[in-house]
Amino acid sequence: MKILGIDSSGNVGSVAYVSDGVVISEYTLNNKKTHSQTLLPMIDDMVKKAEINLDEIDAIAISQGPGSFTGLRIGSATAKGIAYVKDIPIVPVYTTEALCYNLYGESGLICPIMDARRGQVYTGIFNFSEDGSLETLLETTALSIEELLEKLAEFNQQVTFLGDGVDVFKDKIKELLKTPYKFAFGNNRLQRASSVALYGEILFEKGIKQDAASHAPIYLRMSQAERERLEKEGKA
What is the pTM of this model? Predict the structure, then answer.
C-alpha cells in the first residue's frame, strides 16, 4: 500500500511517502514560512527526487487537527485537491495521535501538547499496549496546562511530553508536575508526516477513510477572529 502523508498543523510543514509500512521519503521544514508557500513545492520536490509516481498512491493521510487554523486549512485543501484529481480517499488522522507514533513502543504515558494560546494546550493522554496498538486514556481535547497536569498526576505513571507546547510550557510542567516525566528528544518532538502516513495506513486498513468532498479539518476551538467577533457582539 502506498500513502502520501501531509502535516501542516503547526509551524512545521512535513510531507512523506510510505509504501507498505516503509518510509521511502520524508521532507520537513521548520523555517516559519507559510505552508501556502512550501507545501506543494515540497511535495513536488519529494516526488521528483524520490522518483515517486503519485498516480500509484492508494490514499492521502492528512493531519486533520487540532492545530493551527490556517495550517490545517492549507493542508486540507492540498489533500482534497490531490485526492479529487487522483480519485483516491483521504485518511483523517488526529494530530495528537500521529505525534504518539513518533514514539512508537514508548513505555508509560505519552502526552502530546500543542500550544493552543491563552494558556491552553491541544492534548490527549495515550499509551501503547503490549500488542503495539495505541490506547486512548484521555480523548483529544483543549485544556489549560494546569488541568492537564492534574489529570496526569492522577495516573501516577511516567509520562513523555512532546509537541510544540513543550517549549512553551516546560517551566510550568517542571513547577507543577510531581510524578515522573520526561521530554521527547528534538528529532521526535514535533510533527512528522511519516508518522501521519504510517498511522494512516493502520487506520485505512480499519476502514477509516473519506472522499475529498467530505473531508474537513477539526479545530476544537473557535478561531481568534470568531472569538473577537463574539466579544464585540457581547456574546463571548
Answer: 0.92
pLDDT above 70: percentage of residues in the chain: 93
Q: Measure the CA dihedral 169/170/173/178, to 10°.
A: 180
User: pLDDT tens-digit profile of 135-147?
Assistant: 999 999 999 999 9
Q: Are residues 75 and 44 in the same domain?
A: yes
Sort strands 59-65 and 2-7 into parallel, antiparallel or unpaired: parallel
Residue 143 sits in the same domain as residue 77 = no
Residue type present at position 63? S
Query: Cell 457582539 appears where?
Result: 233
Provide φ and ψ at 108, rounded to 5°. 80, -170
Q: What is the pLDDT of residues 46-72, one digit of tens each?
A: 999 999 999 999 999 999 999 999 999
Please spell the DSSP secondary structure of 118-172, one letter per residue. TTEEEEEEEEE-TTS-EEEEEEEEEEEHHHHHHHHHHHTS-EEEESTHHHHHHHH
Our count of domains for the chain comes to: 2
110 and 91 assigned to the same domain: no
Does an H or E element contain 35, and which? Answer: helix 35-49
Residue 139's CATH number: 3.30.420.40
